[in-house]
């Protein structure tokens, strides 16, 4: 397979997708010797050419900037350690400055669906390499949308993780405080597998961080969930009516999955987006490569150079003022997040031809960042997924966006959206079956909802459970398993409660009740309420009612 990949690349030509290739003989040898028990054993990948790989030049899309690193970037090394096979390093908008894929002396990439149209950038080659099946997945970077826009234009999944979960040590920075390593794949499941291997705390990266306890909890993943969409007058498709129609179809698709549409005010997110290129964060690009660009000329893209050198005009006072503005915007955005679990946006409002971008490179690039530029500034996670095709055959994409550390939940929802097989895992949550006063509408249900628990389903236990009306005040049911009994099962509600809230919930449960493991009618096991056997002495066996609610209703009717 490795020989075949390199043969296809030679037949097509390295440019414009590749800047450099790994040694074919080494890739073949590694493929033959890799431990097949590793999570990515034999899986092929590519990296954007702003990642360091020992023994391969790093150019960041600029030949005169090229250097030979002594060490491989930790995030790439983790993929090697996981068994993945590197094919090569891919083309990019120079210094990761652009969303178009045309700002490179190594050539302009195109969408694999029509060579007249742009591939998107700045991780252009990384997206095209996967779309052309030169590799199974690839790494890009994403500061303003560079890992999502090319995914949309090539019908791929593009995961932009939470800042700091994947190390950026050994990656040429664009805006170091905002940069993210991104993942391109054909499926959300593949992206998830790569993400699990790639993420790790890296003490050599000052922006590296771990997921705090409870931060990734997503009790809404399997049950009803709220998704935010902007007001109609806040959407922008730049005249692309077909993109608007496909976005509406994406909204309907989420609704079929149990999503509840919530109309949000998108203006605060747009205001934050304007800070990225119209504020002092451009100075961070100058801090990264401005000194080099002040003197270099060979192979330098003039549009990129002008953008980055423009960052020199900002002062420290400008930076602090914008930081204050951004923090105020985050507080305003929190009001919108209170109305939604996830946001659904177009990844881009439209797509452009290479000719159009060449004629108007800055304005059209800005348009492409309309729905992406704010995400890292607001410390959010996002995943771009395919959203259908226009009548002319060009793809459209949408993005699922969530709070920091919601990566696992976004990947799970993306899999559901794409119709991929999914497991029953609910990120960082405990599944809890309740049968009495914690049922929906009952007096103690608030003990679940106040802990951000969500109802997953209503079902029944296995057939060998009995239910008793205990002598407690207020009266509560007690459930006991009796292996010799075969009934119809007891009605329960299964709730997903965040793991970090579970302990306080259990601590508040008075005897004779406790938490154990229950078996449901489908054979699965969840945590649930159990009762001390001594408490059922003299208690009424109410199993015949099938559940606490039915028993209570029967009592009310009898009175």
Account of the 3D structure:
The chain is of the alpha+beta class. Helices cover 32% and strands 22% of the residues. It contains 18 helices and 21 strands. An eleven-stranded mixed β-sheet has the order 1-3-2-6-8-7-12-13-11-9-10, sandwiched between helices. Helix 6 runs antiparallel to helix 15 (407-417), helix 8 (267-278) runs antiparallel to helix 11 and helix 9 (281-293) crosses helix 10 (302-309). The protein is elongated. The chain starts with a helix and ends with a helix. The mean pLDDT is 96.
What are the salient characteristics of this protein?
11-stranded mixed β-sheet, 559 residues, alpha+beta, 18 helices, single chain, elongated, 21 strands
Secondary structure elements and pairings:
Blueprint: H1 2-12, E1 18-21, H2 24-33, E2 44-48, H3 74-81, E3 85-90, E4 110-111, E5 114-118, H4 124-131, E6 137-142, H5 149-153, E7 157-160, E8 180-185, H6 188-198, E9 225-230, H7 241-256, E10 259-264, H8 267-278, H9 281-293, H10 302-309, H11 316-337, E11 342-346, H12 354-359, H13 361-368, H14 374-377, E12 380-389, E13 395-403, H15 407-417, E14 429-434, H16 446-449, E15 454-460, E16 465-469, E17 477-481, E18 491-498, H17 499-507, E19 513-519, E20 525-531, E21 540-541, H18 548-558
Parallel strand pairs: 2-3, 2-6, 9-10, 9-11, 14-20
Antiparallel strand pairs: 1-3, 4-5, 6-8, 7-8, 7-12, 11-13, 12-13, 14-18, 15-18, 16-17, 16-21, 19-20
Helix pairs in contact: 6-15, 8-11, 9-10
């Amino acid at each position: 397979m490795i020989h075949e990949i390199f043969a296809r690349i030679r037949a097509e030509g390295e440019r414009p997708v590749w800047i450099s290739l790994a040694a074919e003989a080494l890739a073949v040898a590694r493929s033959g010797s890799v431990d097949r028990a590793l999570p990515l054993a034999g899986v092929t990948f590519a990296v954007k050419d702003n990642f360091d790989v020992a023994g391969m030049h790093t150019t960041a899309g600029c030949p005169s900037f090229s250097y030979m690193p002594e060490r491989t970037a930790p995030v790439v090394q983790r993929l090697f350690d996981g068994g993945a096979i590197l094919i090569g390093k891919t083309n990019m908008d120079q210094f990761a400055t652009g969303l178009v894929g045309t700002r490179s002396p190594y050539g302009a990439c195109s969408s694999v669906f029509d060579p007249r149209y742009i591939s998107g950038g700045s991780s252009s080659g990384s997206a095209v390499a996967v779309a052309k099946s030169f590799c199974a997945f690839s790494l890009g970077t994403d500061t303003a949308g560079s890992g999502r826009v090319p995914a949309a234009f090539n019908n791929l999944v593009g995961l932009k993780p939470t800042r700091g979960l994947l190390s950026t040590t050994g990656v040429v920075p664009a805006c170091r405080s905002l940069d993210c390593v991104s993942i391109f794949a054909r499926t959300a499941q593949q992206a998830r597998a790569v993400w699990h291997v790639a993420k790790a705390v890296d003490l050599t990266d000052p922006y590296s961080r771990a997921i705090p306890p409870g931060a990734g909890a997503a009790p809404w993943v399997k049950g009803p969930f709220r998704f935010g969409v902007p007001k109609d007058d806040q959407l922008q498709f730049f005249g692309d009516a077909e993109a608007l129609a496909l976005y509406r179809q994406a909204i309907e698709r989420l609704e079929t999955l149990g999503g509840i549409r919530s109309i949000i005010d998108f203006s605060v997110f747009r205001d934050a987006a304007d800070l990225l290129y119209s504020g002092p964060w451009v100075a961070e690009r100058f801090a990264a490569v401005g000194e080099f660009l002040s003197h270099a000329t060979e192979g330098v893209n003039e549009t990129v150079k002008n953008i980055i050198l423009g960052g020199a005009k900002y002062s420290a006072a400008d930076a602090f003022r914008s930081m204050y503005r951004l923090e105020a915007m985050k507080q305003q955005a929190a009001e919108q997040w209170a109305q939604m679990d996830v946001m659904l946006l177009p990844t881009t409002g439209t797509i452009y031809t290479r000719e159009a971008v060449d004629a108007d490179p800055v304005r059209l690039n800005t348009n492409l960042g309309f729905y992406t530029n704010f995400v890292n500034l607001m410390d959010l996670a996002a995943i771009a997924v395919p959203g259908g095709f226009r009548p002319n055959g060009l793809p459209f994409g949408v993005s699922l966006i969530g709070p920091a550390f919601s990566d696992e939940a976004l990947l799970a929802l993306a899999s559901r959206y794409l119709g991929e097989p999914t497991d029953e895992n609910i990120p960082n949550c405990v599944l809890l079956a309740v049968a009495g006063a914690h049922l929906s509408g009952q007096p103690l249900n608030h003990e679940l909802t106040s802990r951000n628990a969500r109802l997953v389903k209503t079902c029944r236990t296995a057939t060998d459970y009995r239910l008793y009306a205990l002598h407690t005040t207020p009266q509560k049911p007690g459930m006991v398993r009796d292996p010799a009994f075969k009934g119809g099962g007891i009605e329960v509600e299964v709730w997903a409660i965040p793991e970090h809230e579970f302990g306080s919930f259990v601590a508040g449960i008075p005897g004779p009740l406790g938490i154990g493991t229950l078996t449901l009618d489908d054979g699965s096991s969840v945590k649930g309420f159990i009762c001390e056997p001594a408490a059922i002495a003299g208690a009424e066996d109410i199993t015949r009612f099938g559940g606490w609610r039915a028993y209570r209703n029967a009592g009310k009717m009898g009175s």
